[in-house]
Amino acid sequence: MRSPEQQKIEFLEQRVQELHAENQKLNTKLDGIDDIIKKSVDEKTSAYDKLNSQSVASFNSLVSLLQAVLIIASFLIAVMTWVGWNNLTTWIQNHVKNEAEKQIKDRVTDNFLKQKIDERVSDDFLASKIDAKSQAAMEKLDTDVAAKAEQLFVRYETDLKIRLAEATKDAEEIAVLRRQNIQQPLSTQQQASAERLEAKAEQVPEAERTEDDWFLLGLQATYKSDHQTALECFEKVQTAGGLGNAALAAEKTGQNDKAELLYQHAIELDPMFAHTLAGYAGFLVDFREDYTEAETLYLRALTSNPLHSNTRGNYAQLLFISGRNEEAKEQLKQIESNKNYGVDLDLEINFYRYAHLPEERDIALTKLKAILNSDARSQGWDFSKNIIRAEQDAHPELKFMERLADVINGKESIEILNQFMPWTTAITN
Fold it and tell me: Which whole-number Å values give the CA distances from 166 to 63, 170, 173, in the listed order?
């Protein structure tokens, strides 16, 4: 539907065209009038010339007649009295005078009429009358159109600035989300951004969706635990981050071979993308038990992003299940020195301490109890290999540790721990 402004502009443009058409018609009529007037002038001029010729001929005839009369008069002189002669000459003089005055008057009248006609049909005269009116109308229309155009320009410029600001904000928020490891929970602000952007992406027709749209829809499906849809969306994002997320979704749906191919493709696209390197390393630990290659990938990821606490926490887990406790402790110290990690990672590293560091068990369990009582969890995290290693190291509380792991990853409620002495006797802050 056309806007009121567009309708007004179209009306003004139509009115301009109508004025031009009317002007054209007037010019055509004037051309006709000009032809008629010129024809009339030509006829008058021709009549004048004819009359002039006739007048000359008449005058010549009159002169001849006078000459004849004079001859006759001379003949009659002898028989006419002096009085008779005077009357005749007076009549002749008056007749000649009256005829001359009439011809002069007609000639003057014709010249005056011709002058007025010429003045009336003068191009400058008519143009000045018509152009002055048309010019005023055109100037008014130009002013109105220019004013409307300026209003529309200002409106569209404002709208463009708003859209540009929104697009810039969206791009910045999408960039943050695309750097986010989808295995980790979003902050409140990130969650709000994701929901807003996902709602926008859903409104875009499928054929017109960009990689950002598919990424956001994949993110939405991930947080709804619709991993198959997430896989289909992330596969359309041909970046290391997009394919890395697709690989993780393939893991969740049990498509491990496909997941591995996606991880490898993602790393080919960006060999130093920390999330993908860490994700593939975790895949090799969980599904291939290739600890050597996994360690290589973790170290590459940490070289790319030394402050990435989640990657360092996963590397520490690998070191603990490999029996390299001292090296793992160094990784935990670096995590805590950065102070840039969430409660989910805090739960994980304190579970590692409880499982693998006897000298830190009491402190670790106290922290775990405080965090779990605040309803924080590390949803879905796998501690099974830590429990196997703890059993190899003769941990005294294996049953309790198994239930503790189930509570941390959300499989069991916290009340199940009340049957275990270590839990009930743990000191809470």
Answer: 106, 6, 11
Q: Sign of dihedral through CA atoms 137, 139, 144, 148?
A: positive
Q: Which residues contact 249 (CB under 8 A, 6 or more apart)?
A: 218, 221, 222, 227, 228, 230, 231, 234
**What are the Cα distances from residue 169, in Å, to 56, 187, 204?**
100, 17, 18
Question: Tokens 């139509």 label which residue?
Answer: 14
pLDDT grade, residue 329 (50/70/90)? very high
Residue 255, classified by CB atoms within 10 Å of its CB into exposed (0-12), middle (13-18) or buried (19+), is: middle
Q: Output the CA torsion sign for 411, 416, 422, 428.
A: positive
Which phi-psi region, left, alpha or beta, contains residue 289 (left: φ > 0; alpha: ψ -120 to 50)?
Answer: left
* Two structure tokens written together for 257: 């071979």
Provide the pLDDT for residue 426.
92
Cα gap 330→336, rounded to integer Å: 10
Residue ranges per structural domain of the chain: 4-143, 342-429
**How many degrees, rounded to 5, is the angle at CA 318 between CA 271 and CA 226?**
65
Residue 117 near residue 40, CB atoms below 8 Å = yes
Average pLDDT over residues 297-314: 95
pLDDT confidence band for 83 (50 / 70 / 90): very low
Instruction: Kindly calculate the radius of gyration of the chain based on its CA atoms and give it in whole angstroms.
Output: 55
With bands split at pLDDT 50, 70 and 90, how would you rate the model's confidence at 85? very low
Structure confidence by residue, pLDDT tens digits, 138-194: 566 567 666 665 665 565 456 545 554 555 555 555 555 555 555 555 566 656 666
